[in-house]
Amino acid sequence: MTDPRPYHILSYGTLLGTQVFQSFVGGIIAFRALPRPQFASLQTAIFPIYFSMQTALPVVVGLTASRGGQALGLSGLTAPENCCSTLLPMATVAVTGLVNLFVLRPLTTNVMRERKHQETRDGKKSYDAGPHSKEMLALNKKFGRVHGISSLVNMVSLIATVYYGAVLSKRLQ
Questions:
Q1: Which of 15, 23, 92, 143 could connect to 111 by a Cys-Cys bridge, CB 3.0–4.6 Å?
Q2: Distances (CA, A) of 142 to 4, 38, 47, 112, 139
Q3: Under 8 Å CB-to-CB from 73, ≥6 apart: which residues?
Q4: Rounded CA gap, 21 and 5, in Å?
Q5: Centroid of chain to Cα 150
Q6: Dihedral of the CA atoms 164, 167, 171, 172 (nearest 10)?
Q7: What is the DSSP letter of 66?
Q8: pTM reported for the whole predicted model
Q9: In whole angstroms, what is the distance from residue 20 CA to residue 35 CA?
Q10: What are phi and psi for residue 80, nearest 5 degrees?
């Protein structure tokens, strides 16, 4: 129970699996299968949990990094040989999770709320065929920009996670 290696592998596997599933399976299937309002409600409920996991799991991965079953600890993580291979990718994943959780998700939610109000004023859904009011066009553009940035940040996180997986695989004996 004191060997950090099982916790390390399980935490890393959970992190990678969650990222791949949410980015390439669950989100896409939900978008195709659900009407847009239900899809938005589902994503609104999932994202806080997903981004929290994306923030917490890399911390666990970093804290359970070891050599021969001996935890590296913070001083071992910051050692030159581990800084770029373990600390940097896991810190990247944690920071991108924080950015999505506390900056981009609230921005996206606010734009969605503004679009709802504009839909009431316009008498037309934001995703209905045009023409749209200037206000709705601006909100749709803002939503697309914020959502795109969030997706890009998520992809950076996934790339950092996969990079660490390659590093981890080279350590296996």
A1: 143
A2: 44, 21, 19, 10, 5
A3: none
A4: 24
A5: 8
A6: 70
A7: E
A8: 0.92
A9: 23
A10: -50, -40
